[in-house]
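queue> holo job accepted (S-adenosylmethionine)
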Amino acid sequence: MDVFESNLEICALRLRDHPNIAYQLCNGFDFQPQPDASVTAIFCYDAIVHFSRDLVASYLKDARRVLKPGGMALLHHSNYFWPDTTVHYGHNPRGRNHMTQALFNEYVADAGLEVVEQILMDWELPSLDCLSLSSASRLDPFWLIGSHPKWTKGSRFGSSEHREATKPRALSPNVF
Ligand SMILES: C[S@@+](CC[C@H](N)C(=O)[O-])C[C@H]1O[C@@H](n2cnc3c(N)ncnc32)[C@H](O)[C@@H]1O
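queue> job finished
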């Protein structure tokens, strides 16, 4: 997934000998149009490090939606403390946006996921980045209720409320 079609085209060209890969343009703030509970793993490296806080929170929240119960997300994110929003993140070391391990953990918890393992990584500076493995609980009431026949019809997914909550909207600029 990528928010720029041209970057997907570069990947498709580079990986043309692997017909089992699918390329999906995304809206830049969540995993739509990926269906609910459809993937066992999400991997993202060297992209979220540049994302603003609201984008990180938005992707984590949607990770809970797309992950199957027990699924895992391995995400490489910033651990660079620089909450000054008047300075463009492009001026920070290696273009890292403001994020800390602790703040990321709060967003993981807010999304209803659990941190399984984390390592801080040196990247030009000591502990500039963090690699976090988070999981979706196998007993997530979100899905237990959503998949119960009694609730399926009135499920929040596909409802006008859900469509409204997930439709593209302006978030902080994240210009590359
Ligand atoms: C530094 S590149 C790294 C690409 C790839 N992970 C790699 O290691 O080669 C960051 C990628 O994130 C994409 N990107 C930027 N903002 C995004 C967003 N909000 N949602 C999804 N992808 C985004 C960019 O288009 C770019 O392809």
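queue> The chain has one domain: 5-166.
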